[in-house]
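Appendix C. Worked example: NifS
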Amino acid sequence: MPLDPQRIRALFPAFAEPSLQGQAFFENAGGSYTAKTVLDRLEHYYRATKVQPYGVYPASIEAGEAMNLAYERMAEALNVSADWIHFGPSSSANSYVLGHAFGGWLKEGDAIVVTNQDHEANSGAWRRLASRGIEVREWNVDGGTGRLSLEALDRVLDGKVKLVAMPHCSNIVGEINPVEAVAERTRALGAVLAVDGVSYAPHGLPDLKALGADIYLFSAYKTYGPHQGVMAVRPELAAQLPNQGHFFNDAKPRYRLTPAGPDHAQIAASAGIADYLEQVAEIAGREGNPFRRAHAAMRAQEIALARPLLDYLNGRNDVKLIGPADPEVRAPTIAVHHAEPGAVVAKRLAKHGIMASGGNFYAWRLMEALGIDPQHGVLRLSFVHYTSPEEISNLIKALDAEL
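Step 2, the predicted output written as structure tokens:
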């Protein structure tokens, strides 16, 4: 593995927390531990600069500079300019506001494409546009595999389509979707591509320039940061969308799509996410862009960790693995359907020090497409690069005992 687990885990105070000893965290898809670089910035902001930012006195000036740095550092990590970046209270809130903005931009008779693989936050916000006369088309998953195929997408695309909304990967299926290929199709139509990256970004922030999406949303608290939503929007597109903030802030790009008043301290602390990724790149070694190196190392680490778990689950005949068994093509967000409700199994695993979860995880439509009762749900075992090989072994032992 390219990353030494001990060196990586030393960068997270949670692993030294006495109350968490003996517990393995397999619910990273619900939120990751926070890196020390983020906590340090958050503590400094609250201690030294917890004033209204962008004022004329020293503490206020420093507060504004700390926030500006976060926009710049997040943009650097995503390989875009700082005017792409918007912070909001959550990805769900950002999606809701964005959907409302598009409601004033699209015209009656225009069509949009959504999927039934999404978390409802990235689907419901767009589906509401049907009430404004927008045609909503569905890019459906395969009912057996949960996969989104390009062939199925092509069947719902034509010149009326102005927007395609899709997940980078599902929080249940885990398969990494072909965003670049979808971006080529949307560009050819002159349409917009909005990508929900909440379930992918914890496994490495993508190069948005290479990805080709016009909009990319993810949650900072799942990428080792504070509880904020990050939304990257192509600046030319953001300028065309109707202002969602106060009328007198129409000329301020950061205010137009995030009217909820994001937390100043948490924005400043988000610069620590980029700091942490640079630390990962240093541990990984080699030359090149640190954020691309960190992404590659995190993915390689996760693939090595996921392989024995996927092999184990795929070899059992009493559970159904959701999504592909090949760790190379999926994120390590691994869900299984069992005769017992997922939450019931997760509660038993907790006795073994395994912190997992069960439910439908707001992917109600996907559950129905897969023939799974959303109230029954699945058992979800999700992890990231800081998980240790020993924790994977302990998880398999616990599953042997409880399934």
